[in-house]
Amino acid sequence: MTKINSYWLMKSEPDVYSWDDLVAEGEGTWDGVRNYTARLNLRAMQVGDEVFFYHSNIGVEIVGIAVISQEGFQDPTDETGRWTSVKVKPVRKLKRPVTLKEIKADPALAEMELLTKFRLSVSKVTEAEWNHVLALAGG
Predict the structure, then answer these.
(1) pLDDT value for 46
(2) Listing from the earlier edge strand, what are the strands of the sheet with 122-125?
(3) pLDDT by residue (tens digit) across 9-60?
(4) What average pLDDT does the structure give for the chain?
(5) Nearest CA to 60 among 106, 9, 98?
């Protein structure tokens, strides 16, 4: 079994690319990210790292868990060579989604980058935050 090195959260607008789209594909390329901090996060990801899949704009909730299946490579949508992509595979849908409203109301998640760096599309999640969100989702 692959050791999980880090936990992450990746945002996607579900009308553009949803959890169901990832499940249907079986493996997706996370591309189109044009933020330097998010790029650093993508470059730091390792195969086996787990990711919360977050629906932004519509739903605004964590809906599933994915795993990094291929580490950083040049984003195929970028002709400049500056931007990075990773590949992700779905692991499982959460028993119940955890909404942004719930996360904001929970003191244990007050420092989560989802809240403190809310414009960031790819953010770090601590192990304590990861476990707390999983508990909120029903395990």
Answers:
(1) 97
(2) 28-30, 84-99, 61-74, 50-55, 7-12, 122-125
(3) 999 999 999 999 999 999 999 999 999 999 999 999 999 999 999 999 999 9
(4) 95
(5) 98
Specify the residue for token string 């493996």. Answer: 27
Closest by alpha carbon to 92, among 47, 136, 139, 132?
139
DSSP classification of residue 132: H
Q: How far apart are CA 42 and CA 88, in angstroms?
A: 11
Domains and CATH numbers, the chain: 7-136 (3.10.590.10)
Predicted confidence (pLDDT) at residue 124 exceeds the cutoff of 90: yes
Lookup: tokens for 22: 């990832």
Place of tokens 């060579």: 81
Residue 40: both structure tokens together: 């650093």
Q: Report in angstroms the alpha-carbon separations of 86 from 19, 92, 114.
A: 16, 19, 20
State residue 5's pLDDT score: 84
* Radius of gyration (C-alpha) of the chain in whole angstroms: 14
